[in-house]
Specification:
Layout (H helix, E strand, L loop, with lengths): L6 H11 L2 H8 L6 H12 L17 E3 L2 E3 L3 E3 L5 H4 L3 H12 L4 E2 L7 H7 L5 E4 L5 H13 L4 E5 L9 H5 L10 H8 L2 H9 L18 H9 L8 H10 L3 E7 L2 H8 L5 E4 L13 H12 L4 E4 L6 H9 L4 E4 L1 H33 L15
Parallel strand pairs: 3-10, 4-5, 5-6, 6-7, 7-8, 8-9, 9-10
Antiparallel strand pairs: 1-2
Helix pairs in contact: 1-16, 5-16, 13-14, 15-16
The chain binds glyoxylic acid.
The site of glyoxylic acid has 4 residues, from loops.
Length: 378
C-alpha cells in the first residue's frame, strides 16, 4: 500500500482485483448518472481560502459524532454486498473503522450478519435499516440490532423505489442474478478475490438467510427482496420504529429542506443529507448544493451529517465548512476493501484523515469546531 496516495489509487486497484459486476455495483450510479457527477463537480467548485502565518501546530481531528467521541468527523456508510468485494468484507471494514476510532454502519443488505460482526469486533457498531413490507421481519431485525448492542440505527429513507443502475442490468446483477460465461470467466480471472470469498463466512445475504421461512438460496432471497420494497412507507412509520428502537436514530437520505423540517420533529437525533451517492433520483441536486439550506433550517435542532461524493479530506472540510458535523464515506472505503481488505479500508480512512489535517493546516485552523464558512472563498 506504500504507493497508494489517494482514494483514486484504491479505486484503480479495486477495479483490477474484483469482478466487474461487483466493482461496477459500488462505483456506478443511476440512469444518466447526472447526480453522481454533480456530487463530485459541485464539491470541486468549492474553493478554500489559503491562510498563512497562523500557528497550526495543535491540529486535532477529534470530534463528537452523535454524542460520542470519534477520532475524526468520518463514518463508514452502509454499503450493500461488502462481503462480495472481499471475503468477510463487513467484518474487515468494521475492524478498520474501530481501529481508526470512527463508527462503522452495517447495511441490512450485508453478506455477514449482525451477529457475525458483533462476534468479531469489540465495540458497538451502527446498523442501517431498510423498512420492508414484512414488518414482522423488520421488527425482528431491529431487535437483533438491539441484542447486538448496536449504538445507532440509520434508517434509509430514500429507497422506497429503486433507481435503475443501467450497469447492474448489463452485468447481470439482477433479480435473480444472471450467470453468463463472461461473468464466470471474469470471476475465474480474479483468483485472489475468489479465494477470499471462498474463505469468508458467507456468500449470501447474512441478515436474511435463516430468518425467512423457506427462503434460503440466493435466487429466492433476491426475489423476496425485490418484492419487499415498501412504497407505503411514510413519516408515521418512524413512530413505529421509535416504539421498537430505544437508541439513537438517524434518517439517511434527506435532500429537501421541507423533509428536513419534518425530520427535525420526528424524534430522530440526526439526518444524513444525501442523494444515496447518485444511485437513486437522477437529476436531483448534488448533496453539497442541498446542504447549506438544510443546515440553516434545522442545524440547531439536530445533528447534520453529509454524504454523496466525498473522496478526500478536502471534501470533508468542504462539507464541514458548510455546516455538516461529520461525513459518511461509502465508495471511498469500498474501493479500499476491494483493493486490499482491512488494510485497504484502513488506508482509505488514513488518507482522508491526513488530507483533512493538511487542509486544516493550510487554511489556518486547528480544530474541527473551528471549521466554518470562513475557510471558504465566497
Ligand atoms: C443500496 O442501497 C444501493 O444503493 O445499492
Amino acid at each position: 500500500m506504500k504507493h497508494i496516495t489517494c482514494i483514486e489509487d484504491l479505486r484503480e486497484l479495486h477495479k483490477r482485483r474484483v469482478p466487474k459486476a461487483f466493482f461496477d455495483y459500488a462505483d456506478r450510479g443511476s440512469y444518466a448518472e447526472e447526480t453522481l457527477r454533480a456530487n463530485r463537480d459541485d464539491l470541486q467548485q468549492i474553493k478554500f481560502r489559503q491562510r498563512v502565518l497562523v500557528d497550526v501546530s495543535k491540529r486535532d481531528l477529534s470530534t463528537d459524532i452523535l454524542g460520542e467521541r470519534a477520532a475524526m468527523p468520518l463514518v463508514l456508510a452502509p454499503v450493500g454486498l461488502l462481503g462480495m468485494q472481499h471475503g468477510d468484507g463487513e467484518i474487515l471494514a468494521c475492524r478498520a473503522a474501530q481501529a481508526a476510532g470512527i463508527p462503522f454502519t452495517q447495511s441490512t443488505m450485508s453478506i455477514c450478519s449482525i451477529e457475525d460482526i458483533a462476534a468479531s469486533v469489540d465495540k458497538p457498531f451502527w446498523f442501517q435499516l431498510y423498512v420492508m413490507k414484512d414488518r414482522g421481519f423488520i421488527k425482528s431485525l431491529i431487535e437483533r440490532a438491539i441484542a447486538a448492542k448496536c449504538s445507532a440505527l440509520v434508517l434509509t429513507v430514500d429507497l422506497q423505489v429503486m433507481g435503475q443502475r443501467h450497469q447492474d442490468i448489463k452485468n447481470g446483477m439482477t433479480v435473480p442474478p444472471e450467470w453468463s460465461l463472461s461473468k464466470l470467466l471474469d470471476f475465474a480471472s480474479k483468483p485472489a478475490w475468489m479465494s477470499g470469498i471462498l474463505r469468508g463466512k458467507r456468500r449470501t445475504f447474512g441478515n436474511l438467510v435463516g430468518h425467512l421461512k423457506g427462503i434460503d438460496d440466493v435466487a429466492a432471497l433476491s426475489v423476496w427482496i425485490n418484492s419487499q420494497f415498501d412504497t407505503t412507507l411514510n413519516w408515521k412509520d418512524i413512530d413505529w420504529i421509535r416504539s421498537i428502537w430505544p437508541g439513537k436514530l438517524v434518517l439517511k437520505g434527506i435532500l429537501d429542506v421541507e423533509d428536513a423540517e419534518i425530520a427535525a420533529k420526528s424524534g430522530a437525533q440526526g439526518i444524513v443529507v444525501s442523494n444515496h451517492g447518485g444511485r437513486q433520483l437522477d437529476g436531483a441536486p448534488s448533496s453539497i448544493e442541498a446542504l447549506p439550506e438544510i443546515v440553516d433550517e434545522v442545524g440547531s435542532q439536530m445533528e447534520i451529517m453529509f454524504d454523496s461524493g466525498v473522496r478526500s479530506g478536502q471534501d470533508v472540510m468542504r462539507a464541514l465548512a458548510l455546516g455538516a458535523k461529520s461525513c459518511m464515506i461509502g465508495r471511498a472505503y469500498a474501493y479500499g476493501l476491494g483493493a486490499g481488505g482491512q488494510a485497504g479500508v484502513a488506508k482509505a480512512i488514513e488518507l482522508i484523515g491526513k488530507e483533512l489535517t493538511t487542509t486544516m493546516g493550510l487554511c489556518g485552523v486547528n480544530t474541527i469546531a473551528e471549521i466554518g464558512d470562513h475557510v471558504l472563498v465566497v
